[in-house]
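Pilot study result, target chain (164 residues):
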Amino acid sequence: MNEQSQAAGIDWLQSLLAFQGLKADVTAQMVEDESGSSCWLIINHTGLSEDQVKTLIGDQGAVLDSIQYLANTTLNLGKAADEQLAFTIELGGYRAKRLEELKAIANEAAEQVLASKQEFEIKGLSSAERRQVHHFLSSHGGLSTFSRGKEPDRRLVVTLETKE
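Predicted structure:
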């Protein structure tokens, strides 16, 4: 099933790019990490201009996030939960770089909260990034996280875990 899902993801993303007048090869790679397995659909950016790459990534990855949301929604439509596959759209190393940045943000927040004993708000994250940081911090003992506010000003809050 994974091979079929990967092939469907490649076809879907290449079609989406073609609708935008862009020709780029797409490859798929299964990635295992602490949150499970996902299929990374990697856009080969060598045939794209710098402006095309910037446009596809968007401000703070917003366009790439939207494409990824559409991929996950469309490619998993009508599938049972155990048949669904998580898709990550990668372009020019953006996701890998951003993942490292999010880990650093999570570690900095954890250190600040543990040192100051005060809550710490992280602003400017997309909902997907907030979920990733929630996940990273779930392994830190003594901390808890929650989101506060409404979009577009929703923030992730890191605080000391309360004992009940």
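One observation from the pilot: Residues 21 and 155 are 36 Å apart (CA to CA). A full batch analysis is planned for the follow-on phase.
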